[in-house]
Amino acid sequence: MGNKEQYIPAAKYSILTDLFDPFMKYIMREEKFKNELLDEAKIQKRDTVLDFGCGTGTLSIMVKDKVMDTIVHGVDIDPKVLKIAKNKIDNKGLSIDLKEFDGINLPYENNVFDKVISSLVFHHLVREQKVKMLKELYRVTKQGGEIHIADFGKPQNLTMRAGFFIIQLFDGFNNTKDNLIGTIPSFMEHVGYKNVKEVQRVMTILGTISIYSGTKF
Ligand SMILES: C[S@@+](CC[C@H](N)C(=O)[O-])C[C@H]1O[C@@H](n2cnc3c(N)ncnc32)[C@H](O)[C@@H]1O
Question: Does the keyword Cell membrane apply (predicted)?
Fold first, then answer.
């Protein structure tokens, strides 16, 4: 791909990408917060779902495991994680459409997704990218469709704050500052989503993961 936006790989350094799945499973309690996210999303049979920043495909696969009769699309900026996702999806014999993204225009028409889901992507984006990506996600969400985001949120105590400091040291301070002060919901509202709420919080060793939901009317 030609003009691609700069991005932070799943495990910050490309060389660590293969360690991302064990890290998510054993350190980040991914099963817990991804299941909470999917419980909030209430994905129905025949829903068309977009997993934004799908990484190695775990969340997309969980959607199919829960409701087989769905049309699931995963999009990510990093071809290396998409390759891992494709292998996992093929090994399970599932059908999930994966696309590489240039970081600017999502490769989908307007108003196509019933549910947009995303896990741990927004803390990789600086404020301007967060808003731009949300605008793009709003564009591709159907009227009446929903967005459900799981990402680091405002820590609810000092232990969570200390955990999140480690993430900031590793992933960067500029791209994580809005997570820390909990402003992602205001960006969701800014691009047009309504009924925006923090619906869940999950404590992890590396900080609070908040689940934010909103609807496009
Ligand atoms: C921490 S990983 C999370 C992956 C996956 N969603 C999960 O929860 O297992 C963050 C992902 O966001 C992707 N990413 C970073 N910037 C992006 C952007 N601008 N557009 C789409 N994906 C992006 C990275 O390539 C990486 O796969």
Answer: no
